[in-house]
Amino acid sequence: MVTMRKLIMDFEDETVNIKGAGQETLAKVIPRVIGYVIDRIIIWGTGIMITWALSIISDFEMFKLSKSPIDSIYRFNPLQGLFSLTIFIIVFLMDIFMAYMLYKTNGFTPGKLAMKVRAVKKDGSALTFSESVTRELMIKGIGNAITSGIVNIISLFTASFSNERKALHDMSVGTVVIKVSV
User: Fold this and answer.
1) CB neighbours (10 Å) of residue 138?
2) For residues 92 and 51, is the Cβ–Cβ distance under 8 A?
């Protein structure tokens, strides 16, 4: 039975049998959420910083102060759409980079590494690049963008209430997130 204490504090250590590796301890929900937040801060921070730097280099009007606050609110600036598109493209590329990191580091992203958790295939095989892209980009990145974060909420509940603490992105490619000692 899932209690509020398990959902929030998640005290019990649960194990899962990974083929070829034996019993591993499942990562708790809170460290997984914190790791995800770290990854998103890196992704969005990079997107905003690069876009901001490009706007300074290109003398982008959006960042200049107007003499009148009313003037800046009602003045149409066609470059504002370009600003949003630039952030979107950079965030998309950073999501692909995170998927590549997950693939190359055998289950780690910066957030997972900081929280000492790792995504592994339950059957013991290594994550392929396409599985990493499905997990990180299609479900976490694009899925959340399209649904305005509803996928995150559903993933939080599925990770909290499922037997192997699997979120939607884990279910999509057959992974579990385990504790590691780094």
Assistant:
1) 16
2) no
